[in-house]
Amino acid sequence: MKLLIKSGRILDPSDGVDEVRDLLVSDGVVEKSGKNLDEKADEVIDASGCFVMPGLIDLHVHLRDPGLEYKEDIESGSKAAVRGGYTTICPMPNTRPVTDCAEVVNYVREKAAKVGLLNVLPVGAVTKGQAGTEVTDIAAMKQAGICAISEDGKSVMNAQVCRKAMRQAAKLGVPVFAHCEDITLVEGGTMNAGKKSADMGQKGISNSVEDVITARDILLAKETGARLHLCHCSTADSVRMVREAKDEGLKVTAEVCPHHFTLCEEDIPGNDANYKMNPPVRSREDLEALRTGLHEDVFDVISTDHAPHSAEEKAGGFEKSPFGIVGSETAVALTITELVDKGVITPMQMAAKMSWNPAKILGIDKGSLKVGKTADITIIDPEAEYTIDVNQFASKGKNTPFHGWKVKGKVMRTIVAGKTVYNLSLIHI
After folding, report:
1. Looking at the chain, which terminus has fewer C-beta neighbours within 10 angstroms, N or C?
2. Is 381 a catalytic residue?
3. Does domain 55-362 have CATH number 3.90.79.10?
4. What pTM, to 2 d.p., does this model score?
């Protein structure tokens, strides 16, 4: 099977290529790359005016499977991901049962393989049952196929336990994905501590809730030599601390999610739990600091923290609803609309933060369009305008604050190992 992609703007951060050229894919591998390729192919795609990027990689999704399939399952989450341009996703372990052993890891991988849409690399829990007391068998989970460990949804509050896990992860070459939240400081908070929370009569979540654990985990990574990846950073001080860690040469990377670089507390219209997420959207000053961090490459990655919930769960307002919003199907458009079009990052930076850098963090041979590489490819029309409509989502979760937003940037096609798994011309996949 040969596929010829013509006249697209190739954006390949692995070798700095940013030019209009053609790609020839043969049997799932990039065979040729160059201008005006005259090759016979089973299918020819006219990618004129489109970005052609290495397949997008999302380091941070929640598929809710096993155990919470009413919110999302591996099939629906995979469909949402490929509609969003993703060819590889990393589901977090806060499932029921928790992904804390080889058996659950195998379940996720085997079910994902049956769905067969994209690469699903499970993240294993740091502690058994995410109880925060006993470190999991990281070696066994690595053998089963985890890509990292994380206690996502909470922090490992016991610093000794966290250090022990980091030491083991460092020896095994497994990245540690940190959800930085000091639960002793949350005190029932539902949104950012600021004028908006005061006006709405809601308990606030201060920046220190994130910053205290961010500082601790960076210091533990320094001591243990662990590869630390900081999830969903939201504060100005996180930017500063990540910058300083990088300047010191520590093995620290970090991500920002679209909702945090797009929204601030001022944008919350009222008691709408589709604006409730953890960490919360912060102040305007924090938002601008995050954008600066993205612009200056302090932040390596844009991830979604795709967190589906049922409509019934999200109907309880800020006080009674769970934290989290969906993001797989809106991340590309929000990144182009809010960052690329506004000159915060370049298209090449977008490709790096959504493909090449995540691949490097995971240590996988992806995120590149070089000849000989697996043909995981995302084709995006950066000028296509549309209105976000939750009724068009493949995800079971419709919990987003971006319904009705006018945006630019449409995923036109998602290709995994040379096979088209999403094509915009198809209404249903």
Report:
1. N
2. no
3. no
4. 0.98
